[in-house]
């Protein structure tokens, strides 16, 4: 696992250190501008790209984004590209959100991304505390613009950044996306920061209601449990009859192996749900915990589990589970 921080001191953390033991760990709440002043921060610039032909400098019409502080090239962009400086982001955040920063940092060898997160109200579901964060991400690589996300992940490195973005996009937690070719990018971000407190309060209440619905929705009959598990771990689709016989036979053999694997997954989770798991009750929330326990700790595969849990197949299964259970519970209300 790599932190992929720009420098060893290019991340701010509020009180709680990260696994990589890098960056500045504050012992008190700080604003975004104060947090930025305590770490390695960078300034970016857009400069014209010229080529030299037979001693003559010729304009290409393209521009380069560079990290002026580190004197490093990042990407090639058009002349319409607008730069959001990290200090501008921090100042807009402090004026609009007026909350302490939880984490703030730069990712990539040349500082290709900056992120800023802050804590949202947590809530309790049957004794389990659900943490919530808001995350701002701004890219300087010509591919990633600015965005705001809701996530349950505390971003402290490249892996957790990727996990938070994936979770947000798959779980309808992306609130806003801004493009760098917009002349109003800075103003738009400022407006969103001013608008976010009320929106986040509403979203938090919606999330709380959803999770409380999971905890009150009973799954106490075998038919309901079997149906939900089959939706989460379905059998593969049959091989079409029009396939050539040899290919069809090979595909059928592969399908049987996958179907057997899905059956084992369903049975393993069912056993966890029915008493073998850790503090699991007969509710949708209990089933969600049974599946997260299975995907995080019980499932045995040859490949390393860590990346799969963060953003691979295991992460996909857990997010799929949450969405299926939410749809099941809310549709029954």
Features:
alpha+beta, 333 residues, three-stranded antiparallel beta sheet, single chain
Topology (SSEs and partners):
Layout: E1 11-14, E2 24-26, H1 32-37, E3 44-53, E4 56-67, E5 72-77, H2 86-96, E6 103-107, E7 113-125, E8 128-139, E9 146-151, H3 158-170, E10 174-178, H4 185-216, H5 222-232, H6 245-276, H7 284-298, H8 305-311, H9 313-332
Parallel strand pairs: 1-2
Antiparallel strand pairs: 1-6, 3-4, 4-5, 6-7, 7-8, 8-9, 9-10
Helix pairs in contact: 2-4, 4-9, 5-6, 6-7, 7-9, 8-9
Can you offer a commentary on this structure?
By secondary structure, the chain is an alpha+beta fold. It folds into two domains: 11-207, no CATH class; 217-332, no CATH class. Helix content is 44%, strand content 23%. The protein is built from nine helices and ten strands. The strands form two sheets. A seven-stranded mixed beta sheet has the order 2-1-6-7-8-9-10. A three-stranded antiparallel beta sheet has the order 3-4-5, with no helix packed on it. Strand 6 (103-107) and strand 7 (113-125) form a beta hairpin. It is globular and about 75 Å long. The model has no long low-confidence stretch (mean pLDDT 91).
Helix count equals 9
What sequence of helices (H) and strands (E) makes up the elements?
EEHEEEHEEEEHEHHHHHH
Q: Oligomerization state of this entry?
A: single chain
- Let me know the largest β-sheet: 7 strands, mixed
Low-pLDDT runs of 5+ residues are none
> From the helix content, strand content and strand pairing, which structural class follows?
alpha+beta
Overall geometric form: globular
How confident is the prediction overall: mean pLDDT?
A: 91
Work out the count of structural domains. 2
